[in-house]
Amino acid sequence: MVKPAGTAKSEWPARLVRTESVLALRTGKIILVLERCVDRSNAAAIFRTCESLGVQEIWEIASSIEKRKGWKEEGNKKGENAGGGLGAEKWLTLKRFPDTASCIAQLRQMRVQIWATDLGPGSHCLGEDLDERRQPCLKLPDGKVAIVMGREVDGVSQEMLTAADERIYIPMVGFTESFNLSVATALVLQRVFSMASTSGTTLHGDLSIEERNAIRADWYPKLWAKSKTDEGRNRHLVYLESARRGSLPNVLPDLRRPNGGGRVMPKIAKKTETPRDSESQWGRQWYQRRRRQRWGGHCGG
Asked: Which single residue of 20, 147, 225, 230 has CA 20 to 30 Å from 53?
C-alpha cells in the first residue's frame, strides 16, 4: 500500500533516501563538453567519472565516425555502457550536438564560459599559475563554465579553441606527454573542484529547485522500472509529488556504504576471486566446476 503525499521523513524507501542524498550534492555549475570522442569506452569511463564527482551535465559533440554511421541526437543507447560505465549515463543529463558550431552557439546563448583544454602556449596551468600577488591567475566565473575535452588523437578542435574564453592544461613531467582521455578528464575536474574549494566556493549542491525537480522526474521512475506490476512501476509518483511540495527525507551524512565497498563490474569481481580465496563462495564454486570439467563426474566433494 502506497502512502499518500506528505510522506513522513522516516517512511521514505532507502533507495529514495540515497537518491536524494546524491541529488543534494550535484552541481550544475560545471558542464563537461566531450568533443568528437571516438572511443566509446573512453566516453563510458568519463560518464562514470562525472557521475561520481557530482557533475550532472555532459554535452557530446559527434565524432566523424558517428556521422558516417548515422548520427542520432538521442545517441546509441545500446552502446553507451561499453567499457565499464556501470550505467552512469542514466543518472546524467546528456545533450548531443552534430557539430562544434551548434554546441558553441548553445553555450553562448546560455552565457556559459568556455574553458578548453590545450597544451599550446598561452594556456593556464590549472590551479597553479599565479600572478604577481601569488594569487591564481584563473578563477571560476560566477556563472556556469564548460570544460571542453577533445578528441583522443589531436585534442580540442581549432574552432572550439578560437571560441574559448580560457585555455587550460594540467602539468606532465614524463616522456609520454599525454594522459588517457578519461584520466585527463578526471584530473581536470578534480582540479576545478579543488580551485573552488580553495577560493571558498562550494560547487556541490548548487542546483536550483527547478533543476532538482526536473532531475527527480527523470530519476524516480527508473528506481522502480523493473517492477512487474503497474502499481509497482507507478510507486514513485507519490514520492515525486511529496518532493515537489518540499517534503523530503533527511539526507545521508556519508554516501559511502557501511561495508566500505563500492560497485564493481561482475566480470572484474570474478577475476579478483580465485580458487585460493577460501572464504569466497564464488571461489569454491569455481574450484568445483573446474574439477568436474577435468574429471567428469569422478570427483568428490
From this structure: 225
90, exposed or middle or buried, with CB in 10 Å at 0-12, 13-18, 19+? middle
Contacts of 217 (CB under 8 A, 6+ apart): 240
CB atoms within 10 A of CB 64: 11
Is the whole model's pTM more than 0.70, yes or no?
A: yes
Q: Are 144 and 29 within 8 A, CB to CB?
A: yes
248 DSSP β-pair partners: none
pLDDT tens-digit series, residues 142-191: 999 999 999 999 999 999 999 999 999 998 889 988 899 999 999 999 99
Please name the amino acid found at residue 208.
Answer: S
- For 18-198, CATH gives 3.40.1280.10
Run of H or E residues at 161: helix 158-163
Each residue of 110-142: pLDDT tens digit?
999 999 999 988 899 887 766 556 566 788 999
